[in-house]
Design a protein that fits this description.
5 helices; single chain
Amino acid sequence: MRNVLLVGSGGFLGSVARYLLTGYVTQATTAARFPYGTLVVNVVGCLVIGILAGAAEQRHLFSAESRLFLLTGLLGGFTTFSAFAYESYFLAREHAWPAAVANVGLQILLGLAAVWLGHRLVAG
């Protein structure tokens, strides 16, 4: 139950941070017809997960509970794209190129297909 609370509280904070940052960037770029808010959140999330995961691996700075709160909860609530990017990077770093390419391709293609299918199911 403790792990669920760690992930849940981190997820709450990450979701609020995503909402605030996306809103700020969207207001600052209202003239653009591009989702800059989402782009900024995804890039910031990827940078932060790279920093935190690198620190956890290289310097052993975080306990298992801290990693759950920060990586799974906070960053998972902020953007799951950071987890996707880190997992793809990890596969590539381990020279598992077929798995890395498959992960990127499947995540994007199946994700877009699922959005299309979901929209078609309700739009008729």
